[in-house]
Write a structure and sequence with these properties.
The protein is an alpha/beta fold and 447 residues long. The chain is built from 11 helices and 18 strands. The radius of gyration is 25 Å and the shape is elongated. The two termini are 48 Å apart.
Length: 447
């Protein structure tokens, strides 16, 4: 290396080591500061999904784990029974109740606002939106804390990142306006998380026994290298699906994986069969699974029903179809031809879709079928699981993970594995969050 490159490189090394030393010293001081607090409060928001709750619970585990806090954390939740149920799912140490222990940290669940509770020095959150009709909500006041660190899930633009004080004179500091923190780029700062360890499989409530037996066996099986594991979230029963009609999302996911396993009609060198584990709620998904099977077998989608109709395996244009029926029919013909290059290797023959609740024996039989060749896909809906299990299974994925949540994006960034961050339907088009930021489809190709 020549001048000035070697000088700049040396300066960078010194600066980098200095930043690391400063960060380590800061963590030491922060750990000592927390140790002086008998009680701290953590706000858990009542958002409709579990993303904000999961983000706050990850902050809790950071405090109890890496920061070795030995006092009491009061989880102050908003949103009533729905939020409480989410907390009891995410924190199995609560055992379905209002108290528990994580490491040396005592956890108590209380309702927000914390009116009448003693004022404490500090509080935190991993996700807090302003209440409807209440811009610039002061959570420090509602929690009864002197200082409140309001963090948001990764790339969550709807609400600010702040330090708040229980004060009407200087109520908050906007973290995204601080140059030392990167200004507006602070929005896309993921917070560090330790690598998820194997969970204590046998310690969770009996309601999870079937799902956890399957996941424990699958993660060990995938580790042998015979199969790929793809983990997904966001595929839910029709009324709740954030990323599109479940049948069509399953179809796109399965056929995308199948395409990666093939070069034309031949198996791609080094390809492996894939088990797709969906860690979201499809308990009432029998109709969606049946519709996905129909799509894989060359049938029509719900979104085609304004133009096409199907009777058995025959698809035709409706007698009084809306404008554009010929184009929709031509698109179906192209799709059907792609799915059936040869009858013995059709997409439907290479994919099995199970219903949520399959037991270990059923899954083991399906995995035996998967291993029969290297170009098959099994879609396995598991349902929601405790957060330590979710994080560990997610970390075991060997194929790109697929999800829509911002809290899950933070986990994906921490793990450093390939992933697809899918936009919610409400944010499709301009804005919203997606990674990769550009995806390819049939419209990008001439043939």
């Amino acid at each position: 290396m020549t001048f000035p490159g070697m000088v700049l490189s040396a300066l960078y090394d010194v600066a980098s080591r200095n930043r690391q030393d400063q960060a380590a010293a800061g963590l030491t001081r922060f750990r000592a500061y927390l140790a002086q607090q008998a009680v701290i409060r953590l706000f858990v928001d009542g958002t409709s999904g579990r993303g904000h709750q999961a983000s706050s619970v990850r902050v809790l585990r950071k405090i109890a784990g890496d920061l070795q806090y030995g006092g009491t954390v009061e989880l102050a939740y908003r949103g009533g029974p729905q939020t409480l149920a989410a907390l009891q799912l995410l924190i199995p140490e609560l055992h379905g109740g209002l108290s528990g222990v994580i490491g040396n940290t005592t956890v108590l669940v209380v309702a927000y606002p914390c009116t009448g509770r003693p004022v404490v020095t500090v509080g935190f959150t991993g996700g807090a939106d302003d209440a409807q009709g209440s811009p610039d909500e002061n959570f420090a006041t509602g929690l009864g804390v002197g200082t409140f660190l309001r963090l948001q899930p990764y790339d969550w633009g709807g609400s600010p990142d702040q330090i708040q004080w229980d004060s009407s004179v200087w109520p908050y500091l906007d973290l995204r306006a601080q140059t030392v923190l990167g200004g507006g780029s602070f929005l896309r700062r993921a917070y560090a998380m330790p690598a998820p360890p194997p969970p204590p499989w046998g310690t969770y409530p009996p309601a999870y026994a079937t799902a956890l037996a399957v996941l424990q066996w699958l993660t060990k099986t995938v580790a042998t290298g015979d199969l790929h594991l793809c983990v997904t979230t966001g595929i839910r029963t029709s009324a709740k699906s954030e990323i599109g009609p479940p049948a069509e999302v399953i179809f796109n996911l399965v056929t995308g994986l199948q395409a990666s396993q093939r070069n034309g009609t031949n198996r791609a060198p080094g390809s492996r069969s894939v088990v797709v584990v969906n860690l979201d709620d499809m308990a009432s998904g029998a109709r969606d699974i049946a519709a996905a099977r129909q799509l894989l077998d060359g049938g029509i989608a719900d979104s085609d029903l304004a133009w096409l109709e199907q009777e058995g395996t025959t698809v035709r244009i409706q007698p009084h179809a809306a404008v554009g029926a010929q184009e929709v029919y031509a698109a179906w013909q192209t799709r059907n031809q792609y799915l059936r290059p040869r009858r013995d290797t059709s997409a439907a023959d290479r994919a099995h879709l199970l219903l949520q609740g399959a037991d270990l024996a059923t899954v083991q039989a399906e995995v035996t079928w998967l291993k029969g060749t290297s170009d098959r896909v099994l879609f396995l809906p598991i349902g929601p699981v405790p957060l330590p299990v979710f994080d560990y299974v997610f970390s075991c994925a060997t194929a790109p993970t697929v999800f829509e949540g911002q809290s899950t994006a933070n986990l994906a960034l921490t793990l450093g594995n390939p992933y697809f961050h899918v936009r919610r339907r409400a944010k499709q088009g301009a804005g919203g969050s997606q990674y990769p930021s550009t995806t390819l489809g049939a419209a990008n190709f001439d043939t």
